[in-house]
Amino acid sequence: MAGQKQVMDLRPNSEGITTLESNEQQRNWTEQHSQKKVNDPLANYDPSRYHLNFEVVKGGIVQPIDTSKTIAQKLAENLAARGIKDPNARTNVRCRRRTLAQFIFGGGRERMLELAFGNQTVDLSKGADNSHLTRQKDIEEWAKDVYGFVAKHFGEDNIISFYVHLDEKNPHVHCAVVPVNEQNKISWHSHFGKDLVEGRAIIGALHDAFYEEVSKKWGFERGDNMAETKSRHRSTEEYKRDLVSQIRELETTREGLLRQIRKAEIKLKSISTMIANLQERKAKVQEQIDLIAKQFGQDGADNADLAKQMQKLRRELEGIDDKLALRNKMLEDANSTIEAAKARLTELQERHNRMQNVLGDDMEKEATILQKNIISTYHRMYAAALEPVLSTHTQSQQEILETSGFNDLAENSGHVVNVAMLLALRYIHEATNYAESCGGGGSRPSSGWERDKDEDDEHWWRRCIAQAAAMIRPTSRKRKRGISVMRASRVIQW
After folding, report:
1. HSE-up of 465 (CA within 13 Å, CB side)?
2. 346 membership: H or E segment, kind and range
3. Closest CA to 466 of 434, 424, 427
4. Other C-beta atoms within 10 Å of 431: how many?
5. Cα–Cα distance between 448 and 471 in angstroms, integer?
């Protein structure tokens, strides 16, 4: 099968695997959550094939997926059994290290489906019933070969999980590996290089080895390096972020359509007024023409002069008819523009709603957790701001209140928390709009606003709160105080 390339995607992980991500890989869902996945218009899970999924465990043994422990629990137990410390498990970690390599293994869809189901017919349409399918031996043997490849290159003891999914459009493997070196310590550099150049060389060599040791045997071509193609398998988190980005784009397009509709409606009103005026003038001209027509042949009438007046009025009437024809065409075009824009708006709204539904409870849970953590951090910052005020009863008390950030945190606590949460979720545009709607100056974060790669949670939340407080502060108040946003932010962060 020409064009059936191998797939080997690597994603470094320094944040650990969440329960949500673990449940997804293990398909450890409640019936309600599973149904939600089925109803997701952008997802491709097939519940009639859930039972075909499997895992490969130590010794290359194929078995049904064990959901008794999360991947995080398996990692913790693995490290504890070998006396290995997780550098990210320490309290107040500021620089989180890469402690887990998450691999995706697979290949071209046609060949992968053949390995999984042989000559059986697979209906990949949404909602299809594929319960008649049976898992073929080839997919198990291929998976064991992939498992053997990972064990050879990274050590079998370092394989934390190895799940094979046959319930999506393209069968594939999710494999988590902890990079432990010969000194029995977690070391990303020892396995994947100390810098970008060395890392790319190692990944390139892994692609070569994967082709020679596994893919060639099963009829796949060597895959392209991700560094070259700029493509890779997206994690659930990344998928959700992409959806959020698409939702933002839809909202921007929606705003543009609404502006287009408003402009067209203003134009429509103007054209309608012009048409009404022209019709009124036409009626008056016609009245004059009718009056002159009655005067023809009457005693004392100057028929020649009346003829001239009649000719002039008829030319004006023709001009009015031409203008009316043009204005009616403009009216028709404006109506068509509005109708097309409204139809497009309805379509976008439906897409927007579908995407919002995809995010569902997971995003709500994420927002709830973020809010809880931000509020907790906020209270600590509030107390720190209050402390100098309680211990000082001098004339400089007001200045202390101002420069400590106490007033910003105390006066607008609800708004500050909301803006901080939006910032933590990377909704910069929404955070700015919210701040402005609350009367704040709306000082937009500097370009490149993002969480630093090695920044711990506490520091990140403090930065979000500090920035939020600066954004909520009214512009006039900033000028009066003579304090820049940057200065205020630094003071509030402690």
Report:
1. 31
2. helix 303-390
3. 424
4. 26
5. 17
- Nearest CA to 401 among 493, 487, 492? 492
CA dist., res. 36 & res. 306, Å (int): 82
In sequence order, the 6+-apart residues with CB closer than 8 A to the CB of 234 are: 242
**Bigger pLDDT: 250 vs 57:** 57
**Fold of the 243-358 domain:** Helix Hairpins (1.10.287)
Where does residue 21 rank: exposed (0-12), middle (13-18), buried (19+ CB within 10 A)?
A: buried
Task: In whole angstroms, give the CA distance from residue 486 to residue 143.
Answer: 54
- What is the pLDDT at residue 163? 97
- Helices 428-437 and 413-424, axial angle in degrees (round to 10): 160
The answer to whether 251 and 430 are in contact (CB under 8 A) is: no
Its pTM stands at: 0.50
In this structure, are strands 159-165 and 172-177 parallel, antiparallel, or unpaired? Answer: antiparallel
Q: Is 464 exposed, middle or buried (0-12, 13-18, 19+ CB in 10 A)?
A: buried
Residue ranges, comma separated, of all CATH 1.10.287 domains in the chain are 243-358
Three-state secondary-structure class, residue 11: strand
Tokens of 474: 């009214």
Element (H, E) at 127: none
Any alpha helices (H) in 221-302, and if so which ranges? 226-229, 236-295
Domain with CATH 3.30.930.30 in the chain: 6-232
In single-letter form, the type of residue at position 38 comes to V
Using alpha carbons, select from 234, 233, 238, 236 the residue that is nearest to residue 27: 236
pLDDT single digits (tens) 384-411: 666 565 556 565 666 666 666 666 666 6
- Under CATH, to which class is 6-232 assigned? alpha beta
Is 33:360 a contact under the CB 8 Å cutoff?
A: no
Q: What is the pLDDT of residues 305-337, one digit of tens each?
A: 888 888 898 898 899 999 989 989 888 888 888
Q: How many other C-beta atoms lie within 10 A of the C-beta of residue 158?
A: 21
Residue 118 DSSP code: T
Q: What DSSP designation does 180 have? A: B
Nearest 5°: phi and psi at 95? Answer: -115, 100
Distance separating alpha carbons of residues 451 and 423, to the nearest angstrom: 10
| Burial status of residue 112 (CB atoms within 10 A of its CB: 0-12, 13-18, 19 or more) | buried
CA nearest neighbour of 233 among 54, 42, 6, 8: 8
Distance between CA atoms of residues 243 and 237, nearest Å: 10
β-strand partners of 177: 101, 159
Q: What are phi and psi of 247, to 5 degrees?
A: -60, -45
N residues, the chain: 494
Alpha helices in 211-235 (DSSP H): 226-229
Angle between helices 137-154 and 196-210 (to 10 degrees): 140
